[in-house]
C-alpha cells in the first residue's frame, strides 16, 4: 500500500522554527472580545421606535388612536408601518390626496363621525392591505369611479349615514374581496344595474362578491332589473325604509324573490318590504 510522505513542515525541529506555535497550544481568549463586539452590534443595538403622531395615543406601535381629539385634519407623521388607525368622532372637514399616502400595511381605518364631504380621487390608492374602512356619519355626497380604487383587499365598507346621492356604476369594480357593504341612511334615489359589480369582464360579464348589502332608509323608489341577478353570493339584503313605487317596474323583483329564498338566509325586507311592494300592472 502506498503511503503519502508526511509533511516536511510537521517534521521541522522546534529550534529551527521558534516563531511557529502548534495550533493546539494557541491562546483562545483573544477571540472573545471580537465576538462580544459582534453580539453587541447584532442584539445590543436599540431598535428604532415608531413615532406616535400628536395628540394621538399609540398603545402598541402598530395602532394609532385619535378619537375625540377635536382634530380638524388627519394628523401628520403617521408611521408607514401602522396597521390600524382610529380617527373617529373628530371635526375633520377634508381629506387630501396625501392624507394616507404610503400606508401600504394599513388594515383598518376608522374615520367615522366627522364632517368630510368628499374623498379626493386617489386618496386611498396606497391602502392595498386595507380590510375594513369605516366612513359612517360623515357628509359624503358622491362616490366616483376612482374614490375606492386601490382598496383591493377591502372586505367591509361602512359608508352609511352620509349624504350620498350618486354612486358611479364602476365605483366598486375591482374590489373582489368586498363582502359587506353598509349604505343605509343616505340619500340614494336610483341605482345602476351594475352598481354593485366588483368583477367586470369586457363590459359585458358582471359579477358581485358582496354577501351582505344594506340599502335601508334611503330615497329609492325602484330597483333596476338585473341588479340582483349579478349578485349570486348575496345572503342578507336590507331594503326597508324606502318610498317604494308599486308599479310594473318592480314585477321582476317578485320573481327574483321566489327564486332566491333558498339562497337568502336572512332578509329584513321579507317582513316589511314585501308587505308594501305589491306591483300593480
TrEMBL record:
SMART domains associated with the record: LRR_TYP (SM00369), LRRNT (SM00013)
Source organism superkingdom: Eukaryota
Repeat among keywords: yes
Domain LRRNT: 51-84
Region spans: Disordered: 1-28
Signal peptide region: none
Alphabetized UniProt keyword annotations: Leucine-rich repeat, Repeat, Signal
Gene source species: Leptonychotes weddellii
Compositionally biased residues, Basic and acidic residues: 13-27
One Gene Ontology CC term in the entry: plasma membrane
Protein name as it appears in the record: Matrix-remodeling-associated protein 5-like isoform X2
